[in-house]
Amino acid sequence: MRSEREMAEAIQRYGDTVRRLCMVHLKNYADTEDIFQTVFLKYALTSVSFDSDEHEKAWLIRVTLNACKDLLKSIFRSRTVSLEELVEQPAQLSADHREVLEAVLSLPARYRDVVYLHYYEEYTAPEIARILGKNVNTVYTRLTRAKGLLREKLGGDGDE
Amino acid sequence: MNSRIKRAFDAVHAEESLKESTLAFLERRRKGGRVRQGWWAGQRLAMAACALLLALGIGGWWLYFTPTASISIEVNPWIELGVNRFDRVVSVEGRNDDGTALADTLDLRFMDCTQAVQTVLESERVSALLAADEVMAIGVIGSDATQCSRLLGQVETTAAASPNAYCYCADGQEAAAARETGLSCGKYRAYLALRELDPTITPEEVRAMSMRELRQRMEELSAGNSNDSTGGTVTGNGAAAGETAGGSGQNGWGGHHEEDHGHHGWAYGA
Lengths: 160, 270
Prior knowledge:
The complex is a heterodimer of chains A (160) and B (270).
Chain A: H1 4-25, H2 29-45, H3 53-74, H4 83-86, H5 95-105, H6 109-120, H7 125-132, H8 136-154
Chain B: H1 2-10, H2 16-65, E1 69-74, E2 78-83, E3 89-94, H3 97-105, H4 113-122, H5 124-131, E4 136-142, H6 145-159, E5 165-170, H7 172-181, H8 185-197, H9 203-208, H10 211-229, H11 233-244, H12 255-261
Helix pairs in contact in B: 4-6, 7-8, 8-10, 8-11
């Protein structure tokens, strides 16, 4: 098991990423807390030797997404949820941020991953395909459709 | 849109409380894991120790309680003492009714075999029989020649003060042959010796006779033979009997008492 110091560093470094993925997928803060802990416990226990920070981050993203999917498979969840339930202190978010995040969260689940990974983490489609274990063309298709949906909700040019 | 999405996500951070609770959770798991690991290690160690103790216990029990030789004491009461490799009595068995009655009155288990034989010799019943000139045969029976020789020496020393006690040593093969006829080793030897003098004698007759009666019978027969064949027959019969009994000087009927107390007539080949 990794040391307490290593874990504190990892949470500091990757906590936000894991947190955002939880927000994209999960319906309440309690589930987020569960997944957050699960992901970092797996990280603490893993014997995987990471080649680089990028490799480590991709591993954590994959583990987080899988953990979220496992949780969602195991219990009944409504398709949509308010941001208030997802973020502990939503008041700290600006109106624009809230609008964007709510638009993302309103997307079908299969589009949310690619939106986050592409727009925020800036992974390319082939990289996203590797992380999600999907065909690259599937990723391209999802990205295109997600952009279309977001454009409808948020307006403006998708790539600006 | 790209930058809006990026800024929006950028505004989302893992809450400090979430980080802290996760670190606390990991610490609990770490401690729990250690405890559990320690618990398992402790369990394994305890189980190994138990297994070792059990093995030692069973091994020790087996070593201590497995008889490696037996001492057959026969006057008319016939008892057999099981002796372990440490020369301790681990079992006492009455081989006939009188023997069972005698065994019940004596507490011989776990005694040193010398002490046990001494106790038997000094018991009221046996000492009364010996005082009445009954004959006692004490046989050391076993397949370990070293232990048998040691035990025989101890038994001989213990019985030295009893004039009618005869000590002998027999191996497992002879003991098995004696068992087949239903006789003690001592009586079996007497039977073989008597058969040389009187081929009509049966094991049943021998079994029904006391050691003294056997001695008397042998004396009578050998005296008769001496009269008939004008000397030398006793020696001849004796040699034959001794050979038949498989006895050497040590293993033959008389044992050391033959030397100590002179020729009793029936101690052929001794």
